[in-house]
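To whoever is covering the structure queue this week,

Two jobs came back overnight. Logging them here so there's a record in the thread.

Job A:
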Amino acid sequence: MNFKSGFILVMLLVTAFICISGCTGTTTAGEENTQPDSLLVYCGAGMREPMDDIAIAFEEKTGVAIHYNYGGSNTLLSQMELTKQGDAYMPGATSYIDTAREKGFIDTEANVVYHVPIIIVPKGNPAGITSLEDLAKPGIKVELGDAEAAAIGTLSDSLLKKNGILDEVLANTIARTATVNELIVHTALRQTDAAIIFEDLFESEKLDRIDIPKEQNIVKVVPIGSLTFSEYPETAREFVNFVASDEAKAIFTAHGFVTYPDPYYGEI
């Protein structure tokens, strides 16, 4: 083989390699791959209903499907730390995203809605509960979220401590659940006299509610953030921005949420 023939062969091989690389989606460092078919979003279980509707709206707009991993906010944070996979994180309170940011997991973020705690009781309120203080009465059965797993659990402890009744209510607590949805089911089935949940999850046909006065209550802001280890950072940011958009906030409002910012609750 002469020099000219060898040069032509090398050029053909280089061209073929470039074509193959382009067809398989190979990108240079720092460059995002082509638009994904789907994103993985870690989301607090209490946000399931509006976020399912938002996933449908986002897919209709962009063609990108959203797959959720629903669970307790702290449990999801542990999963992210273990796997270093996924595209966005939406916990039940800013404290969890603060922790994720400190660990270097958060890229773009936004505040979306408020989580307002209320007391729920079985339909008809058989235990006659009328206030937060009633949860501390001897003989009352209470269920709370797990403070190690769910945002509602951590918040419930802080709320009861703020009002000086934490020890008394814990003495009445018969179970601590990993998600707020379990609290709803157990209360509706009359397995407990009362539980603390977020107001947007209240179901009037199954439960009665007791509102907690603003001066006694602790209201949290629900954030969302894209993840630094996302393989599709631009699309992940697009989803975060969509969740914080007016279109998505209208979906939250339809599901009983107060959207951020609101003059009554402010910055919290």
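Job B:
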Amino acid sequence: MRATLIGRFLLIAILCLAALLPLWYWASPWLAKPPIWLAGHAMQALFPWVDGFEQHGVVATLLTKVQVRMQRGGADVLAELAPEASYPSYGYGLVLLWAMLIASHPHRWWLKGLIGTVILFPVQAWGLCFQWLRDVVLLSGPNGAAYLKYPQWAIDAVAYGYQFGFLMLTPVAPIILWLVFDKRFVAALWLEAALEGKPEATRGAATPTREG
């Protein structure tokens, strides 16, 4: 029974992912606006070297005052660093959440999907912010390091924040939201797991023994 429930859930979730991914990709320029807005304003509020931000489709560009050496026209010149971050790298959890909600179909799943969409915006903004920070703090070279003058612990914190956002927060956050939104489905899995193992234990305990 448990295998049937899980198998049905996985099959529907995979089919929903296949159907929703093209729609999500088409709508990404609009879905990217809230997290890019949050990320851009957070960076402006926290770091004085941030000059602004721009959005071009699904790509978010951070405008900075940090100068780095670049090759331009065969000459070595100083230019202001403008790192880019791609929304799809951090926004795919939205599709995962909706696919799981449709597959398990909790009460008012559509409302929970909308609430989850809003909750995921700050999660996506985290990823965008730390990709920007990684490019500025870790990849800007000696000129960027001389401009920022960050201590080693701050550099390590940026590296950790980027890895956490990319590897953990982005894929795990939608799963956690689904578990919170559909506790009944999770409880059903535990119940069926318990019922599946109970008959064998009962049969073993009830087997009579013969005495000479």
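Note for Job B: The first strand starts at residue 50 and ends at 56.

Please reply-all if you pick these up so we don't duplicate work.
Q.
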